[in-house]
């Protein structure tokens, strides 16, 4: 049916690794057979490899999922999904065939149970019964949990760290992840979340970002993100990158695209490859490092097409491709899952495992979040197996601080699940704040993971915390709105 499908060629565990807590084995990548899915039984290899076909056949709602999956999956799953969409989902549904095909990759005798248990399904198609009913959201969860809008130097340009910025060049992606940190802005509104909209015209926003970078020589590194840059028409992205490359102070450019995994067909298309080659050549001539950062959370997502797209990017002159996954319960919260993923990336696709972020404190994310203590154990468990340069750091993105390695906390109340963190730089909104480096910043573990005394404490104090979180969210929103008004005026 298709020459993309390989048999499971997993090599047996080498005897010298027997007895190790994790037994490395090299596994060949597999493109799952899409003809097992009723809606795709007649799809050809040419169609599957076509980015136009992939984009046209993305699953955007429960009806479309039912049309594709048919009765492989029981009606109770569709009901569960429908309820989640109505009452909990912070992201609208958008799943390219490439990603949907990696769920239950080998088929199963009880498909519905396997579908429920699948790690990719658990974060790309969350259902109501996945979420916690006791604490669906942490009392301190907020829509813009990293306070990026407050740190916008221009609309969509977050200046949090001293020498680097994040440019949110567009608010859409080819796929929407249930746990998206930028759920406040990215994607379509859901019944639960009315999304924030950019005010300025797209080209004006890009021009404003470039102007800021020209007059801010201390910034040397730009993460070009969104959303996902794969959703920006290539000529517009190329023009933006060309302008960035003309700014003398910019030495590192990183393109953020989960689509390298979710829709590798985009990065394999001729026009995009040719465009990446042109931009990479200019970057090389100017001594600028151009890299791709992708977002893969489970080993089964790394397929031969992902490896092919990655190779195409290296052939086009991209200097490095790195993975920034998100650590989530039920998805990748065990040492074997993390190491299987890292080795699939490294051995199979030459993608460097770089970070695992702890899932952020956004609404309805409690069932995904992992405590700092468990994250520390996982970091300990994965050390020593991978090359040092490809051993990912598990990081906590602490509100108002930024990424901190999970072992870097200064204090930890494990009963209440409150960790305390410090920082060594001022964010863009603290230039005049003499106390910024002395202050301690808090991060909160999921309440259901706490001992009984801690859970009881939150029951008693959640009201106060919730009121405080709401007050801070309102202040944060107001600050972002005022900044936008300032820009408009
Ligand atoms: S690809 Fe990134 S920006 Fe887009 S929905 Fe997923 S996590 Fe959010």
UniProtKB/TrEMBL annotation:
Domain of life where this protein originates: Bacteria
InterPro entries from the UniProt entry: Aldolase_TIM (IPR013785), Lys_aminomutase/Glu_NH3_mut (IPR003739), rSAM_sf (IPR058240)
GO molecular function: 4 iron, 4 sulfur cluster binding
Endpoints of the signal sequence: none
Keywords: 4Fe-4S, Iron, Iron-sulfur, Metal-binding
The keyword Translocase is assigned to this record: no
Annotated protein name in UniProt: Lysine 2,3-aminomutase
């Amino acid at each position: 049916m298709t020459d993309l499908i390989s048999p499971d060629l997993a090599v047996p565990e080498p005897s010298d690794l027997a007895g190790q807590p994790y037994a490395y084995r090299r596994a060949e990548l597999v493109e799952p057979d899409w003809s097992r899915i009723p809606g795709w039984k007649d799809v050809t290899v040419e169609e599957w490899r076509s980015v136009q076909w992939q984009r046209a056949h993305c699953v955007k709602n429960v009806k479309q999922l039912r049309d594709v999956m048919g009765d492989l999956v029981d009606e109770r799953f569709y009901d569960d999904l429908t309820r989640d969409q109505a009452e909990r989902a912070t992201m609208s549904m958008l799943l390219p065939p490439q990603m949907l095909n990696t769920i239950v990759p080998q088929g199963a005798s009880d498909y519905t149970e396997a579908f429920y248990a699948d790690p990719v399904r658990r974060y790309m198609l969350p259902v109501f019964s996945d979420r916690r009913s006791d604490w669906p959201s942490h009392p301190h969860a907020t829509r813009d949990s990293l306070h990026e809008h407050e740190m916008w130097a221009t609309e969509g340009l977050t200046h949090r760290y001293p020498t680097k910025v994040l440019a949110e060049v567009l608010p859409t992606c080819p796929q929407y992840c249930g746990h998206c940190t930028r759920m406040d802005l990215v994607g379509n509104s859901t019944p639960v979340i009315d999304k924030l909209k950019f005010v300025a015209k797209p080209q004006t926003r890009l021009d404003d970002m470039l102007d800021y970078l020209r007059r801010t020589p201390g910034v040397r590194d730009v993460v070009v993100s969104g959303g996902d840059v794969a959703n920006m028409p290539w000529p517009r992205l190329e023009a933006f990158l060309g302008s960035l490359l003309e700014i003398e102070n910019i030495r590192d450019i990183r393109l953020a695209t989960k689509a390298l995994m979710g829709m590798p067909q985009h990065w394999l298309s001729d026009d995009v490859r040719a465009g990446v080659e042109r931009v990479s050549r200019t970057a090389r001539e100017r001594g600028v490092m151009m890299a791709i950062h992708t977002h893969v959370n489970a080993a089964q997502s790394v397929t031969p097409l992902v490896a092919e797209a990655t190779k195409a990017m290296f052939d086009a002159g991209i200097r490095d491709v790195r993975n920034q996954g998100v650590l989530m319960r039920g998805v990748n919260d065990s040492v074997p899952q993390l190491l299987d993923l890292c080795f699939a990336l490294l051995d199979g696709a030459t993608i460097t495992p770089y970070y695992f972020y702890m899932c952020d404190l956004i609404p309805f994310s409690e069932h995904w979040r992992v405590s700092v203590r468990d994250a520390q154990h996982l970091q300990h468990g994965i050390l020593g197996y991978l090359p040092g340069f490809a051993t990912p750091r598990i990081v906590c993105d602490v509100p108002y601080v930024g990424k901190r390695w999970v072992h870097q906390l200064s204090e930890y109340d494990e009963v209440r699940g409150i960790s305390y963190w410090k920082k060594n730089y001022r964010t863009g909104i603290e230039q005049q704040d003499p106390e910024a480096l002395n202050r301690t910043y808090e991060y909160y573990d999921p309440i259901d993971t706490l001992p009984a005394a801690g859970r009881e404490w939150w029951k008693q104090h959640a009201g106060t915390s919730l009121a405080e979180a709401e007050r801070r969210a309102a202040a944060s929103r107001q600050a972002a709105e005022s900044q936008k008004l300032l820009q408009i005026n």
